[in-house]
């Protein structure tokens, strides 16, 4: 009997949802046709749209092929329906630029529901308008400052050397895991001055639990992935709140001119010296510190890992990179001087290897926005309420922008110029939300590559890149290494960061 009722209920639900989808889709199509000029494209099957094809392409070596097929049929800007949302996709660098610049605040970030739940409404990744500009400027100013780069260089070096020296006793090294150790330590040091020890281990464990829920079903009750992740966030929040409170008590009113040690300092000082501005509440500061860990946590280690992968597959580039870095190492040994952050960033071929890695890796394949108002960009109408995907991967893999786009070719950057950011090269986004961690990331990758390549030779086992839901190595990139020379490790370093 119960089984029968269940079946009837399911059938009725099915009919209702089907009817709802049909009407909704028809209404949307009517609206779209009425306005004219809306990008062409197909919304695919009921409910799933074109999601299956989108995901399938993410598991091939051609992650842009989903976009390429539609670009060929409908042009550089088209509509589709993926991951539960009808969306206008732009593979046009100029359209992307307008979306990213976001003059008049027409576009707001539009993340999937599970991400929104975990971020919280006050996260810098979700906030808009003046508050976003203020927090972005504060954090960006701090992360880009020469003072931070000079202090953090020593810390990154030591973290890299400590990790690399542990490889001598390991038979098989999984680069994707090892690089995470380095970058997580650097991240929490920059954000809240936590060094190696119990607190760092606690944070690492809880943060891993927290981010597992970023891409999951948005269902929140005990036992579900989202629920577990939210619980982990509560535990992290408790710890970060304590740090913020202790810091506030220790410093009192601070001199705005003295250098901030970490992001907690930066936000606390702004809050204390708010005067006419609205001061940032405590919860806001703690929440934002955690949320700033999200964009930094997986991206930098993946860039390091993929640099190792691409170099392994391109021995000529590997050789040139080694020569350039060995030269710097010899100079430093001869003069007995420490490296400065500018030394690492001054190696042109190394910087070209990093640019090429970021282009080819597409760690952030695009950004999702929602239009608050109807807008016309280059003759493409984006109706109010529609989502837009400014797709970076398609631009980075387009023959119009890069000759032989699927080839790892660091030499192309010598011809293109050190185009750190133009419309066709946006690994760090652009406009109002250009990644504030851009320079820090490049510094971290440069230091890692320098010490890796001047300390070891390696052989990598076969592994493939997966592009969905995020960029990863299927087997975490296993390698075996042969040391070139002993690595000196200085640890712990002076604790003032
Ligand atoms: C290779 C490494 C990295 C890549 C590829 C990357 C990429 C990006 C991209 C594409 C955006 C723009 C998102 C949007 O427009 O919605 C972004 C924003 C952001 N990134 Fe990064 N990122 C990296 C490393 C970092 C690091 C190390 C940090 C922190 C220390 C960081 C902090 C942020 C923050 C706070 C934002 C939000 C800015 C805002 O909305 O105002 N990122 N990142």
UniProtKB/TrEMBL annotation:
It comes from the Eukaryota. It comes from Durio zibethinus (Durian). Its cofactor is heme. Its EC number is 1.14.14.147. It holds the Pfam family p450. Keywords: Brassinosteroid biosynthesis, Heme, Iron, Lipid biosynthesis, Lipid metabolism, Membrane, Metal-binding, Monooxygenase, Oxidoreductase, Steroid biosynthesis, Transmembrane, Transmembrane helix. The chain crosses the membrane at residues 6-22. Pathway: Plant hormone biosynthesis; brassinosteroid biosynthesis; Steroid biosynthesis; Hormone biosynthesis. It is an enzyme of class 1 (oxidoreductase). It is found in: Endoplasmic reticulum membrane. Belongs to the cytochrome P450 family. PANTHER family: 3-EPI-6-DEOXOCATHASTERONE 23-MONOOXYGENASE CYP90C1, CYTOCHROME P450 26. The gene is LOC111293281. InterPro entries: Cyt_P450 (IPR001128), Cyt_P450_CS (IPR017972), Cyt_P450_E_grp-IV (IPR002403), Cyt_P450_sf (IPR036396). It catalyses: (22S,24R)-22-hydroxy-5alpha-ergostan-3-one + reduced [NADPH--hemoprotein reductase] + O2 = 3-dehydro-6-deoxoteasterone + oxidized [NADPH--hemoprotein reductase] + H2O + H(+); 3-epi-6-deoxocathasterone + reduced [NADPH--hemoprotein reductase] + O2 = 6-deoxotyphasterol + oxidized [NADPH--hemoprotein reductase] + H2O + H(+). It is a single-pass membrane protein. GO terms for molecular function: 22alpha-hydroxysteroid 23-monooxygenase activity; heme binding; iron ion binding; oxidoreductase activity, acting on paired donors, with incorporation or reduction of molecular oxygen, NAD(P)H as one donor, and incorporation of one atom of oxygen. GO terms for biological process: brassinosteroid biosynthetic process; brassinosteroid homeostasis; leaf development; petal development; stamen development; sterol metabolic process. One of its GO terms (cellular component) is endoplasmic reticulum membrane. Heme binds at residue 435. CDD domains: CYP90-like. This is 22alpha-hydroxysteroid 23-monooxygenase.
């Amino acid at each position: 009997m119960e089984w029968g009722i269940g079946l009837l209920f399911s059938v009725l639900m099915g009919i209702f949802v089907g009817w709802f989808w049909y009407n909704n889709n028809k209404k949307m199509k009517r609206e779209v046709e009425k306005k004219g000029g809306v990008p062409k494209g197909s919304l695919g099957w009921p409910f799933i749209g074109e999601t299956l094809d989108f995901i399938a392409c993410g598991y091939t070596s051609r992650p842009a092929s989903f976009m390429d097929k539609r670009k060929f049929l409908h042009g550089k800007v088209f509509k589709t329906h993926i991951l539960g949302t009808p969306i206008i996709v732009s593979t046009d660098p100029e359209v992307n630029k307008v979306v990213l610049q976001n003059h008049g605040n027409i576009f707001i970030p539009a993340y999937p529901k599970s991400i929104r739940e975990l971020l919280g409404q006050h996260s810098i990744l979700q906030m808009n308008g003046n508050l976003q500009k203020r927090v972005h400027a504060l954090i960006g100013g701090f992360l880009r400052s020469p003072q931070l780069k000079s202090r953090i260089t020593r810390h990154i070096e030591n973290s890299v050397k400590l990790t690399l020296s542990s490889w001598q006793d390991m038979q098989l090294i999984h680069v994707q895991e090892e690089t995470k150790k380095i970058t997580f330590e650097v991240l929490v040091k920059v954000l809240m001055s936590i060094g190696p020890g119990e607190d760092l281990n606690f944070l690492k464990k809880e943060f891993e639990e927290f981010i597992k829920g970023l891409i999951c079903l948005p269902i929140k009750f005990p036992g579900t992935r989202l629920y577990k992740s939210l619980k982990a966030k509560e535990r992290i929040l408790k710890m970060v709140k304590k740090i913020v409170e202790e810091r506030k008590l220790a410093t009192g009113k601070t001199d705005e001119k003295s250098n901030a040690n970490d992001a907690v300092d930066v936000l606390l000082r702004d809050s204390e010296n708010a005067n006419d501005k609205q001061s940032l509440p405590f919860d806001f500061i703690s929440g934002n510190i955690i949320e700033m860990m999200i964009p930094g946590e997986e991206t930098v280690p993946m860039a390091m890992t993929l640099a190792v992968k691409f170099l392994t597959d391109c021995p000529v580039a590997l050789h040139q990179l080694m020569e350039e870095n060995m030269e710097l190492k010899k100079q430093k040994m001869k003069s007995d001087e420490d490296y400065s952050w500018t030394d690492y960033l001054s190696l042109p071929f190394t910087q070209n290897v990093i640019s090429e890695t970021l282009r080819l890796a597409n760690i952030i394949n695009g950004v999702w926005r929602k239009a608050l108002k109807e807008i016309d960009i280059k003759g493409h109408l984006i109706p109010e309420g529609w989502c837009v995907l400014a797709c970076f991967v398609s631009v980075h893999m387009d023959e119009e922008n890069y000759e032989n786009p699927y080839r790892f070719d660091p030499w192309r950057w010598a011809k293109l110029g050190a185009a750190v950011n133009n419309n066709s090269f946006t690994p760090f986004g652009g406009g109002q939300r250009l990644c504030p961690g851009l320079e820090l990331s490049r510094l971290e990758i440069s230091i890692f590559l320098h010490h890796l390549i001047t300390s070891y030779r390696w052989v990598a086992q076969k592994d493939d890149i997966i592009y969905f839901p995020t960029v990863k190595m299927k087997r975490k990139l296993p390698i075996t290494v042969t040391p070139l020379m002993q690595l000196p490790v200085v640890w712990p370093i002076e604790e003032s960061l």
